[in-house]
Design goal:
Length: 748
């Protein structure tokens, strides 16, 4: 090395030594300040740790902090106290060792440990569990992951003792359950009259409320009064297992309760000298259970008679308390009143059962009467439905007469129409009033050989106004006059009228309705067709059943309504004529086709009473030269229209007629006018026709007038009453004009 190099190295060494010396001087100068700052930070940290420790110790919750390796990094003393962990065990800082210590204290230890390990394994952000300890305590456990400056540092476990809270909740639930049972039992006791049901409800509720393991209700019915008390109901077991439950069913304790002694409460029945141990069970038989806690209370009726007893037992001693005594005593008192009422009901029921054999014939008769009543109601409904059918042609005929512009032929045709429709309505009313026929559920037919065409013309005539009002086109093909049937003209016309009306009703406006007939040697088929909404497939032939109707259409709201009895009546009428009816959908267009088949009559003669033009002959005028003597006639009817029209008709016949509108007026007029014939309505106000007739007879007029009852009541009993009141004749409204003329024109 040269001298220059040696000098250079020496210079550098000197500079470094000076720099180190200066740095050391600066460090020594800064050290006191740094030491002071470190002491401040240490004091702050100690303060923070002290505050955190004070906070943890002030909490009523037990707190444990662990890292991810299950090492304890912190805890408070409440945690130690809650679990009773020794100090040296806590010093180990090993969570697994702590779990081994606290695990046996928990119900379901393995599940408890598995849950902790699951939390470590899955690391949920939070967890919540309910822990039940073997000593009855209940803990809530909450855990949450801990982070410091965004870095996971472990988990905090918080334990809260909720034992008292749970006990309070359980007590509240128990009280609510008791109230629920008492309310339910009270409802049953006030609403039921079945002793067995009452007994079961009572023993079920009382057993649960008292906290008993088993309960039994012994009861004595009136029929068992000399045979003692029988087991009526049990709770907590099956009836057949009662002998093994441990409750006594004989002996001093049992007899004491059923003799009327107050409530008996034993904390340990096995120590009571009155308790009789059950006999030794046979080999292989099930030994009776041991009952220690025992509670028994008598059940008394309103007259203080003991009718039973409630018995309760539990295998543990000292189970029943004063509260159980009060509740059971209250239930027994309420049960006594209710069961006493049920006993009275049971006695009455047993007496009714004894009389049942004597009432068989009466019940059968009542059942038959109810059946007949239903049949009558059905028939009345049918007739009421059909009474409206003749009103359309009648109203149109009245309008024709009102306008007064019809010629002789039209007037005679109108008269004939009104005559037929009035006859139709009269026939229906006659059927309605025929009580014997209604009670049998039968429609009687007045059969005669008629032209089928006449029945169809009548039906068309009745239905034509409805068809026209719906703006339908109508086509009819009637059979030849040679086609005769054995039929009731009015009923058969009624059946076809219903079919035509239904066709018009269930066809939208502007549709078409048709009636066609095809005859052969055996019978005649009548088809009534329409272009309406048709019959739904699910109805089929059910459309003929009572109260079944076709479905309405939004375009035809007028198709709604009715009782659904028209087609039922049609089927009955057709079948009574030996025919049949069916319905089918039309294949060529929308709508329905009703197909009626009727057997033809064997004879071919023209029915009497119809001329070649198929119209009834008009009423024949009185033959010239017939002797006629005008009469003085009194008409009394509170219906002024009825009185006026009858008086007018009699006046047109040439008689001197007066009218009255109540019974008293009729008597006065009879005394003043001295009528030869008196028509009296029965149902007049103030004084009915019967009384008016009797008083007119008391006038003792000579010669005595002919008095005729004119009424809508036409039963046999009505005619009998009229005869007893002094009437000479009984006419049912409306009166046939020919019958009326025959009476007033006679010479008596």
């Amino acid at each position: 090395m040269s001298d220059d190099e040696d000098r250079l190295l020496h210079s550098v060494a000197m500079q470094n030594a000076q720099s180190i010396l200066l740095a050391r001087q600066r460090a020594e100068q800064a050290l006191p300040s740094a030491h002071s700052g470190l002491e401040d930070k240490t004091r702050e940290l100690d303060f923070s740790l002290s505050m955190m420790r004070a906070t943890l110790e002030a909490s009523r919750d037990g707190i444990l902090v662990t890292d991810d390796n299950a090492q304890v990094t912190g805890f408070n003393q409440q945690y130690v106290r809650m679990w009773g962990i020794p100090e040296q065990l806590m010093a180990s800082r090993d969570h697994e060792r702590l779990l081994s210590f606290v695990g046996p204290q928990v119900e379901g230890m393995q599940a408890f440990l598995d849950r902790v390990h699951e939390i470590y394994r899955t690391s949920p952000a939070e967890s919540f569990d309910l822990i039940k300890l073997r000593d009855g305590r209940v803990y809530e456990r909450y855990s949450k992951m801990q982070f410091v400056e965004g870095r996971h540092v472990g988990r905090v476990w918080v334990f809260r003792d909720i034992t008292e809270q749970r006990r309070a909740e359980d007590a509240l639930h128990k009280k609510a359950r008791v109230l629920e049972l008492l309310n339910k039992t009270g409802t049953i006791l006030t609403a039921k009259l079945d002793v067995r049901m009452l007994a079961q409800a009572v023993i079920d509720a009382a057993t649960e409320i008292s906290g008993a393991k088993v309960g039994a209700f012994f009861y004595s019915t009136a029929a068992r009064r000399d045979k003692g008390f029988a087991l009526q109901a049990v709770a907590g077991m099956a009836m057949e297992d009662f002998d093994t439950c441990g409750l006594p069913r004989t002996g001093a304790l049992f007899d004491l309760t059923l003799s009327g002694a107050p409530l008996i409460h034993l904390d340990d029945m096995q120590k009571d000298p009155r308790h009789e141990a059950p006999p030794t069970a046979a080999s292989g038989a099930r030994k009776p259970a041991v009952i220690r806690s025992y509670l028994a209370v008598p059940v008394a009726s309103g007259s203080a008679e003991v009718i039973g007893g409630l018995f309760f037992g539990h295998p543990d001693a000292g189970v029943f308390d004063e509260r159980a005594e009060r509740l059971v005593t209250g239930i027994a008192a309420q049960a006594g009143v209710s069961i006493d009422n049920a006993r009275l009901y049971e006695v009455a029921r047993q007496a009714a059962e004894e009389r049942e054999k004597l009432l068989d014939s009466e019940r059968a008769a009542r059942s038959e009467a109810e059946h007949m009543s239903r049949m009558k109601d059905e028939f009345l409904a049918m007739l009421a439905h059909e009474l409206r059918n003749p009103l359309a042609p009648l109203r149109n005929s009245v309008e024709i007469l009102r306008r007064g512009s019809a010629g002789p032929f039209e007037l005679e045709e109108t008269r004939a129409i009104m005559d037929r429709q009035i006859a139709h309505m009269t026939r229906l009313v006659d059927d309605l009033l025929d009580v014997n026929r209604i009670s049998r559920g039968k429609l009687e037919l007045r059969l005669e050989k008629i032209r089928l065409a006449d029945a169809l013309r009548s039906a068309v005539e009745t239905s034509r106004p409805l068809i026209a009002a719906r703006h339908h086109t109508f086509e009819a093909t009637l059979p030849d006059d040679s086609v005769l049937v054995d039929a009731d003209l009015v009923r058969l016309s009624q059946a076809f009228t219903n079919l035509l009306n239904n066709a018009a009703k269930y066809t939208p406006e502007g549709g078409s309705v048709a009636l066609h007939t095809v005859a052969d040697a055996q019978g005649v088929t009548v088809n009534v067709e329409d272009t309406g909404i048709g019959i739904p497939a699910h109805l089929g032939n059910r459309i003929f059943d009572m109260f079944v109707q076709g479905e309405s259409s939004p375009s035809m709201p007028e198709s709604q309504g009715g009782l659904g009895i028209g087609l039922t009546l049609v089927r009955k009428i057709i079948e009574m004529h030996g025919g049949r009816i069916g319905v089918e959908s039309r294949a060529d267009r929308p709508g329905s086709r009703f197909v009626v088949w009727l057997p033809v009559a064997q004879a071919t003669q023209v029915p009497p009473g119809a001329d070649a033009d198929h119209r009834p002959n008009p009423a024949q005028p009185q033959a010239p030269g017939t002797s006629f003597e005008p009469r003085r006639i009194l008409v009394a009817d509170d219906n002024k229209d009825a009185a006026f029209t009858l008086a007018s008709l009699l006046g047109m016949m040439g008689h001197d007629v007066r009218t009255a509108h109540d019974g008293a007026e009729a008597i006065a007029m009879a005394a003043d006018f001295s009528p030869e014939i008196i028509f009296l309505d029965i149902g007049m106000p103030h004084m009915d026709g019967y009384e008016a007739c009797r008083r007119i007879r008391q006038l003792d007029q000579a010669p005595a007038p002919i008095i005729v009852a004119l009424t809508g009541w036409g039963q046999a009993d009505d005619k009998r009453k009229a005869q007893e009141a002094g009437f000479d004749h009984h006419f049912t409204k409306p009166v046939d004009p020919a019958q009326l003329e025959e009476l007033v024109g006679s010479n008596f």
